[in-house]
């Protein structure tokens, strides 16, 4: 059974049709890439899949439950999302922020236990923020803040991760590291991930499936190997693309300019 | 540890408030008065100074808690309890009472009614359908507050000269004739308990509405709850002591710098320090120009403005 499904989903934003009749099924062990040009509605679609926005028609199901019938707290134990931007208005420490990932798992009066702290420390180490625990979040660089937001998502331990451009602000090494971690997460038998990306080659290298948004509500979805080729990418980005073979699989290189 | 210290200092401040004033008691007479309410100064200490200090402490704690809540509600560390017009409604009603010559005992009730009217007005105007909008609430509240301010100016212009001084004291905030009502203490304890139960949710809300929803908070419900809690705390404080300024802004801000932004620590720290701060301010208000008494709002503002600018400057240097 798929973790996340959409049935006959129509999503619009300000008169723009993002998708029409989207029937998506994100199965366990799958890592989906969401590709499309700027302003096509990737974030809007992700928000809709996370139950933050209402679709124009159709429905989103988590397991076999319509997402809008689930209480947010229960939902947050199974579905987590990395937003495109994280702005910290109030000062807090890095470890306190990472610990907020435990929020949906704790009761009303319950405090974080040593077990929760261990998880937060583990996640910080995983994103290379060891030794940052006591630092203030308002003093972090863009890339560090991005990695902290991802660490918080790891601490939340959702079965399904939705990620909005997780590699923004990251250097090459951390881009690969985060993509590897998402793939490892989705590689688990009961887990999956869906990730909006601008880098086609990261999708080609790490994702198992892609969903492409062409505008005007048109989309296509399927396994990476079938979907990613010169023709589909040229149509997607309105830019000619050349395919190169590398040791880690096919790579796509924009032509012209 | 910090809480113990703050509680101890709070108690000490109340005791100090009982000792100094227009009549300065020596330690011996003071001790005598404290232990024997029937002695010469017993009445002064037990009937006047201690109730006033207790009222100051409670109002300080109410305003500080309200300030903490408002800052999360509007997601702005510079928000204060009066920003959404609660105090404006209370003041207008109280001043209207003074203009029409109602007795002073009727004023707190009137202020309550005015505050509640303002809360309901802002709530129903900004609620609307759809997702939570902090901006809509802020704009509705700020505009409502300006409306009240205009009406208050009108009353000050048209009101009889004899009541002007009383009106001014109310607008600045004054504890001279204050008796601490039991319901205010009960409200403080009750709301504090609710705040502590919600503290972790507020930590998450401080990170933004969308983040909070993704971490499992039904934000629309919770934020309206926070609005109502903060408003009721403000209404209680204003109906007891008028518009005492700066406590609800400075104390949460200062405590955030000292203990951080975890509301499980911030709420008790802010409540204790807010109480302490207002007792000391009121003691100063009674003693600086004794036997003349200043409205305590003047002292909190005079202490608050430089303190606030200092903090702001320090924060900028740190960044």
Structure description:
- The complex is a heterodimer of chains A (257) and B (319).
- Helices cover 32% and strands 28% of the residues of chain A.
- With 257 residues, chain A is α/β, with parallel strands linked by helices.
- Chain A has one domain: P-loop containing nucleotide triphosphate hydrolases (Rossmann fold, 3-Layer(aba) Sandwich), CATH 3.40.50.300.
- In chain A, a hairpin with a 2-residue loop joins strand 9 and strand 10.
- In chain A, helix 4 crosses helix 5.
- Chain B folds into 2 domains: 163 residues, ABC transporter involved in vitamin B12 uptake, BtuC, CATH 1.10.3470.10; 71 residues, no CATH class.
- Chain B has 13 helices and no strands.
- In chain B, helix 3 packs parallel to helix 8 and helix 11 packs across helix 12.
- Chain B is globular and about 65 Å long.
- The relative contact order of chain B is 0.17.
- Classes of the chains: A alpha/beta (257), B mainly alpha (319).
- At the A-B interface, helix 2 of A face helix 8 and helix 9 of B.
Low-confidence stretches of chain A: none
* Poorly predicted runs of 5 or more residues of chain B: none
Number of domains of chain A: 1
Number of helices of chain B: 13
Distinctive features:
heterodimer, A: 257 residues, alpha/beta, Rossmann fold, 9 helices, 28% strand, B: 319 residues, mainly alpha, ABC transporter involved in vitamin B12 uptake, BtuC, 2 domains, 13 helices, 76% helix, globular
């Amino acid at each position: 059974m798929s973790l996340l499904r959409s049935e006959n989903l129509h999503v619009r934003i300000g008169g723009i049709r993002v998708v029409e009749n989207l029937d998506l099924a994100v199965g366990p062990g799958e890592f989906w890439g969401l590709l499309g040009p700027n302003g096509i509605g990737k974030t809007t679609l992700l928000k809709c899949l996370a139950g933050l926005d209402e679709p124009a028609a159709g429905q989103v199901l988590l397991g076999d439950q319509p997402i809008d019938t689930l209480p947010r707290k229960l939902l947050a134990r199974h579905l987590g999302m990395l937003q495109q931007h994280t702005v910290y208005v109030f000062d807090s420490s890095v470890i306190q922020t990472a610990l907020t990932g435990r929020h949906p798992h704790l009761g009303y009066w319950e405090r974080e236990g040593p077990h929760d702290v261990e998880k937060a420390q583990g996640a910080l180490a995983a994103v290379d923020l060891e030794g940052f625990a006591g630092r203030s979040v308002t003093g972090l660089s863009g890339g560090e803040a991005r990695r902290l937001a991802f660490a918080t998502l790891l601490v939340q331990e959702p079965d399904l991760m939705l990620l909005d451009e997780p590699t923004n602000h990251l250097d090459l090494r951390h881009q690969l590291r985060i993509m590897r971690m998402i793939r490892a997460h989705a590689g688990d038998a009961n887990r999956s991930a869906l990730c909006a990306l601008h880098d086609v080659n990261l999708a080609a290298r790490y994702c198992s499936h892609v969903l492409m948004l062409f505008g005007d509500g048109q989309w296509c979805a399927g396994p990476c190997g079938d979907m990613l080729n010169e023709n589909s990418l040229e149509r997607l980005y309105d830019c000619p693309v050349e395919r190169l073979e590398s040791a880690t699989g096919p790579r796509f290189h924009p032509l012209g300019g | 540890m910090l809480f113990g210290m703050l509680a101890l200092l709070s108690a000490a401040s109340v005791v100090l408030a009982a000792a100094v004033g227009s009549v300065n008691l020596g330690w011996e007479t003071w001790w005598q008065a404290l232990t024997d309410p029937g002695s010469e100064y017993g009445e002064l200490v037990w009937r006047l100074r201690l109730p006033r200090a207790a009222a100051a402490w409670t109002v300080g704690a109410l305003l500080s808690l309200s300030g903490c809540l408002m800052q999360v509600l509007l997601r702005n560390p510079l928000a204060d309890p009066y920003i959404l017009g609660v105090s404006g409604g209370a003041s207008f009603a109280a001043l209207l009472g003074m203009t029409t010559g109602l007795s002073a005992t009727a004023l707190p009730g009137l202020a309550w009614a005015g505050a509640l009217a303002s809360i309901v007005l802002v709530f129903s105007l900004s609620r609307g359908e759809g997702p939570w909008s902090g901006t809509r609430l802020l704009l509705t509240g700020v505009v409502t507050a300006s409306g009240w301010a205009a009406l208050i100016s009108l009353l000050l212009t048209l009101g009889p000269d004899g009541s002007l001084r009383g009106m001014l004291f109310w607008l600045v905030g004054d504890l001279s004739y204050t008796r601490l009502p039991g319901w205010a203490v009960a409200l403080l304890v009750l709301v504090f308990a609710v705040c502590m139960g919600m503290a972790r949710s507020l930590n998450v809300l401080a990170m933004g509405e969308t983040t909070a929803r993704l971490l499992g908070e039904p934000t629309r419900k919770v934020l309206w709850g926070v609005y109502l809690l903060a408003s009721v705390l403000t209404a209680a404080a204003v109906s007891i002591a008028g518009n005492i300024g700066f406590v609800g802004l400075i104390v949460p801000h200062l405590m955030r710098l000292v203990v951080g932004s975890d509301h499980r620590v911030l709420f008790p720290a802010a409540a204790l320090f807010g109480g302490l701060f207002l007792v000391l301010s009121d003691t100063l208000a009674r003693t600086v120009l004794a036997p003349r008494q200043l409205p305590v709002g003047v002292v909190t503002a005079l202490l608050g403005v430089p303190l606030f600018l200092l903090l702001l400057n320090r924060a900028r240097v740190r960044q």
